Amino acid sequence: MSQSHRLNNEGLINRNKEIVFKFNGKKYIGYEGDTLASALLANGVHLVGRSFKYHRPRGFFGAGVDEPNAKLQVKLNNHSEPNVNATEIELVEGIEATSQNCWPSVEFDIGAINNFLNKFFPAGFYYKTFMWPKSFWYKVYEPFIRKAAGLGIASIEKDRERYEHKYEYCDLLVTGSGPAGLSSAYSAAKNGAKVILAEDKPRFGGSLLIDDVTIDNLSGKEWADKIITELKEMPNVIVKNRSQVFGYYDHNMMVMFERTGDHLKDKPKHTPRQRLWYIRAKEVLLSTGSIERPIVFGNNDTPGVFLSAAAKEYIKVYGVLVGKKPLIFTNNDSAYETALEFKKQGIDPIILDTREEQSSELIDAAKNQNIKIKFSHAVIAANGYKKVKSAQIGKLNKDKTGFENNEKIDCDCICVSGFWTPTVHLASQSGNKLKFNDQIDAFIPDKSKQHEISIGASKGTFTLKDTLEEGFKIGFEVSKNITKKNNSTSTPNSNESKKNSHDKFWCSPMPKGKNFKRFVDFQNDVAVSDIEVALREGYRSIEHVKRYTTLGMATDQGRTSNLNGLQLVADVEKKIVPQVGHTTFRPPFTPITIGTIVGREVDMEYMPTRKTPMHTWHEKNNAVFVDAGAWKRPRYYKQGKENLFEASKREAKNVREHVGICDVTTLGKIDIKGPDAAEFLNRVYTNAWLKLPVGKARYGVMLREDGIVMDDGTTTRISENHYHMTTTTAQAANVLSHLEYYLQIVWPELNVNVVSTTEQWAGAALAGPKSRDVLAKLFPNINVSNEALPFMGYIEGDLFGVKAKIFRISFSGELAYEINVESDHGLFMWEKMMEIGKDFNIQPYGTEALSTLRIEMGHVAGPELDGRTVPYDVSLEGLVSKKKDFIGKRSLQKEAFNKADRQKIVGLVPTDKKSTIPEGSHLVVDKNAKLPNPKLGHVSSSCWSVENNNPFSLAIVKDGKNMIGKKLFAVSPLKKTAIEVEIISSHYVDREGKRVRS
Amino acid sequence: MLNIKCPYCGDRSQKEFAYGGDGTVVRPQLNQEVTDEKWDEFVYLRKSPRGKHIELWHHIAGCRQWFRVQRDTVTHEIFKTAKINEEIK
Q1: Please, what is the average pLDDT of chain A?
Q2: Across the interface, do A740 and B58 touch by the CB < 8 Å criterion?
Q3: Cβ–Cβ of B31/A885 closer than 8 Å?
Q4: Residue among A255, A272, A254 at smallest CA distance from A263
Q5: How far is Cα A15 from Cα A5, in angstroms, rounded to an integer?
Q6: CB under 8 Å to A668, separation ≥6 — which residues?
Q7: Quick one: pLDDT at residue A309?
Q8: pLDDT > 90: percent of chain A
Q9: Which residue of A lies nearest to B59 if distances are taken between CA atoms?
Q10: In what order do the strands lie in the sheet with A722-727?
Q11: Is the pLDDT at A440 greater than 70, yes or no?
């Protein structure tokens, strides 16, 4: 297999290392150091894809991020990635690439019929065509369009690659290692600044690798190598290749994407595939360079049409000829360098220059080499379908609005140059309003908004001498402000050909009677005629034209199309480009993988997992866990073939009849200390706290300032100035912030300190009629009688040598205790309880049984305290003090909160005593009423009452207790149920609360 | 992502902080008569200025102190940060 277009000597590739790869099923050979694009071109492959809308054959156009066409599906190391830019991906042994957006093949694509139907695909096609009938959109149009206009195919398999995030800080981030980047990074580093130099490509040097220049009597590449070698040795410098800074965020937060593994065939196990860097830079130097823009002409999307700089890069870097009969089409001097490179390789190019006959260093050099130059000439159209075969060219008339003749000229590629566009994306992202520079017909950065400075070609400095001077000067000055050092570096001598000014010619006129497609945006298939249609239809704002035609909206962000698009709008509207304005650039500069954004935050690492000290015991005893925030809590302990329902019923029943044990470590715990602690609690909770004696616990409810219940829990007075507060698992963090807010901002005069102790204490609840018997055996030295340790009492005890806090509190409504020990002893406590409890039929119970027990007791929890209820709504009015003020009290006066028919808590049983009522069901009078069926309330919590052996629910319903005895329907359209229910009290078990006090 | 200077800990990434809203709101004193209008203003009504804004931030993943920040809501520039007992204008 020969590489028909590979040169023998030129290029920076490693000819000693052949690489075998596949494209559309066929095997090819390239070299180490190739990109997929250069390797295919070396093999003479140009046709790589079909265009987005018209399915026209497309080939390579650029040689890097500028590429609008060559987006391939690439398979490597068992992962398949869509929309990969063939010009950016490095060639690796085993790569399998395929064309996208074509069927059955890129050579023969049925969708290409769109090209002949292009009259039916005008600008705004989607908006116009698929509006009617409306019902067709989801079923017919959308699936069809998706299939026809798709890009690649995203994998549905799990991404097994490893991605990482990294944070870095520096004085100076330099984005791009061309002459501007190298010189500024070097002079700043020499002056002691901490510098990060990022280069998108594998090789450092940017334009120095391809331009025929000398610096300090070295070639551009030699000088770049020398500087990079020096920079790499400096401890204050990080030099990164394959790293693209793609986003400029607030406060100089720069985000960089590093391809750490994509170029490696056998990636070491722990090397990530890609890495995302968050870099906080004091100053950012934007040395992103410039991108050549094309001149628009007929059929300018034919494979074989290239940017002239790309053609030069293929020769100089990869040793690849993009054609053997090149036609160079230019409005400026820089394409002459491409022509001279072809000539060096023994190829005879023809140059078409839109300018009148003139002379400059480069033009003269071309003339001296006997290169044929046709001045005042332009390409009218390319001929050839899947590859350029020839070109129609013509001599431009005086005002360049038409052609004086029309001639066919044989060629196999057209290298086009319409001058240079500064890459201003990052500057624009930083908030910099761009300004138009009519010397270069492009936008350049205006005043800095953040700490950023654009240098070199990215701000329109197009000569090497000026760029180097700028780089060395600005690198020094910026670093001086940071390091306060004064070691300046002198600018080296440099040499390059002087260039004449460019011609403002950007689009070939259409000869009369011809109807060539002239593309402005290749990736989104937007032609001159599309933009003209949009303007004719009344679109004026460039932002609207962009959205209507999709100009510049593809993944290449219009890198080669923006300015030509603006030029066209300006011409038609008889304005100048700065009046048209430009659209907004947004990150990312180029597409990045989702994997990189996600980083290591997948699977187990998606969020932290909180486990209680008893977790291993739960695991060993067949606990089925449920997520409670970050916590893992046992939902039930499976015995035999039990399901959730059966297990939770057994566990709850065992609590009611014997004794159960539940892990309550996850409850929020806050230690409150200080002489004003009682006063503080009195302000935080709705009930009275000043007279709570030491050794007693109290249930408390706290509100937000708007009167809504925020959280509930018990707080215990451990000693005179020391309280132990518990919160719900879900609200633990919010309650702490809430307390800190009031202590630090509202009442700083209160001498109180709060700290979370959730992690410090392991907790177990002992609940059930036999719980006291277990407790007595656990603490044989303590009197745990009802008199010595009454309901809401607190004592400290010694649990086989471990200090324990014993609270007589109950969530289940049974006689119950909660015992806390220091976390390290949690498992010991639990095992002791199980061991001693054996004689009393102790069984662990999970959150499902816990819910059952609290629901049938009518204890409110999260589903009732849902951010919409005030204390009166959930039977907590008894806890609202009339005497004292507290957080949120004033809001309780609101009329709406005091309305007689407000929705309040009740209990529900199904009249058939069998059907479980889905939580979230709506309560209505008539289950068959027309929608919207008036809703009286909703079901908040449901359980199977183990006490009464039938379903029971809590609900929030209009008119609350006044509805008791009435019948309603609980309807759930989601579950397709309509259950007749009777409204009863929310306290279904032990209404008098005797058990907890027994 | 903002870079916020905690008055206690120094420059830290926004990730460590929680936003706390308008920093100029003063809670009516306890046990005082408050009109409906005044109370509603305290609980619900907030200005949404374009430009300079004094706001509260809470260093939840750090020293757990609340403090005030003067920030431009358009450019996100932070002009000043101050402890709660310090002046910020």
Answers
A1: 94
A2: yes
A3: yes
A4: A272
A5: 14
A6: A713, A726, A727, A728, A729, A731, A732, A733, A735, A736, A756, A758
A7: 97
A8: 85
A9: A737
A10: A697-703, A709-719, A722-727, A668-673, A753-756
A11: yes
Which residue among A250, A737, A748 sits closest to B1, beta carbon to beta carbon?
A250
Of A249, A705, A744, the CB nearest to B84: A744
Residue A124 has a pLDDT of: 66
Query: Of the given ranges (A583-592, A673-682, A774-783, A845-854), which has the lowest mean pLDDT?
Result: A583-592
CATH number (domain holding residue A979): 2.40.30.110
Task: Mutation target for A interface from B66, B69, B81: give the one with most A CBs within 10 A.
Answer: B66
pLDDT over 60 at A131, yes or no: no
Interface A:B, Cβ pairs < 8 A: 52
Residue given tokens 């907030």 in the structure block: B46
The pLDDT of residue A265 is: 85
Query: Which residue of A lies nearest to B79 if distances are taken between CA atoms?
Result: A251
Task: Count how many domains chain A has.
Answer: 7
Kindly provide the ipTM of the predicted complex, given to two decimals.
0.98
Least CA distance to B85: which residue of chain A? A745
Put simply, whether A720 touches B (Cβ < 8 Å) is: no
Name the band, by pLDDT with cuts 50, 70 and 90, for residue A158: confident
Q: What is the pTM of this model?
A: 0.89
Give me the residue label for tokens 């009504």. Answer: B45
Contact list, A683 vs chain B (CB under 8 Å): 30
Nearest to B66 among A252, A733, A745 (CB): A745
Is residue A892 over pLDDT 70? yes
My answer on whether A650 and A782 are in the same domain is yes
Residue A804 covered by a domain: yes
Do B28 and A890 lie within an 8 Å CB cutoff? Answer: yes
B13-30 pLDDT, tens digit each = 999 999 999 999 999 999
d(CA A89, CA A21): 13
Give A252's contacts in chain B (Cβ within 8 Å). Answer: 3
Compare all CA atoms of chain B with the CA of A708 and give the residue at the minimum distance: B43
Q: Look at residue A676 and tell me if it is in a domain.
A: yes
> Is residue A883 assigned to a domain?
no
Is the domain of A144 the same as that of A168?
no
Domain check: are A267 and A382 in the same one? no
Architecture of domain B3-25+36-83: 2-Layer Sandwich (3.30)
